[in-house]
Amino acid sequence: MQSIRELFGDSSYTNAMILVSVSEQMLYHRRKTGVVYAYPVSTATNGTGNREGSLQTPLGKHRIANKIGYELPLLTAFSAREPFTIFDPETDDPSRDWILTRILWLEGCETGKNRRGKVDTHARYIYIHGTHEEDKIGTPASHGCIRMCNEDMLELFENSHVGESVGIRN
What we know:
Layout: H1 4-8, E1 17-21, E2 26-30, E3 36-42, E4 60-68, E5 76-79, E6 82-86, E7 99-108, E8 127-130, E9 146-148, H2 150-158, E10 165-169
Parallel strand pairs: 1-10, 8-9
Antiparallel strand pairs: 1-2, 2-3, 3-9, 4-7, 4-10, 5-6, 5-7, 7-8
């Protein structure tokens, strides 16, 4: 594991930010207090890339554009960012890519890389969200989003804010 300075650079330790390391399949959240929390994640099966339709996890500087799911129960399932049921593993449709618990909808900050045109992270509906496949956390298994265990997603959601920086790198 890298040092905190290597992860976040020399930026102020009081700035909250999220860093996703694709190679480590880890998400690091530095809160306003300066304390860093680490969570295992699952990024895209198809690797990294910013093109629309690639089913890859986009790289670069992002920010949290929207937080969706305030005060809903754990394992709330979303469709088009709207809650529609509580996930039940007994009736799971294995072909479905469930978006569970909470959504942090990302927006790219680098025009031509992850913002606007065919590389727009927000228009690609790239989220950090909970998953029904918690057993795959730690390995690339998503369709482009960043998946987390549901309890971890709830904790991250409660301690992050709209506008917070999110860096995604290999």
